[in-house]
Amino acid sequence: GFQIMGAAQPSLDKCTFSPDDTPYEYPGQPLATDDPPYSTLFQYVCMDHGTEIAQLNLETRTDRNDTYVCACCGAKLFGGEAKFDSRTGWPSFWAPYDADAVGYARDKGNVEIHCSKCKAHLGHVFSWSTSHDNPTGLRYCIDGVCLRKVARAADETGGAYPHDLPLILEQ
Prior knowledge:
This protein is mainly beta. It is globular. It is built from one helix and ten strands.
């Protein structure tokens, strides 16, 4: 079901950045070594629930050994095996890392997703065609500025939580 954000809102005070973070391959994303380690785009998207411009010429790379984490707090959001090329200009995944990785809320008729830990806005989830690279029929459309990519730990089993995903109702 949908998780209501309630009074908890995203805040830069909740953001922690590690100099070891690898930025997602997206133009204009702040680096962890920047001072401050966020940009106007980061604040607009993650804190103010905006959307960045699609990057239609961005090469989409997928690597099962990557884990995509929240650029604000570092919580695990998506496993590399759930990433697919939607050809939309935004990073796309077919399932979150686990059942508690993201929260859901209605946003003007769409389903908005946010980090369950720090409440940073991540993007939206839409119905999508089911295929060999998208078994759930969902597209978690994520703003690239919201992601950081980290190598999967040797003992990490992966992500791509395929059970109890939200029912997306078309408006």
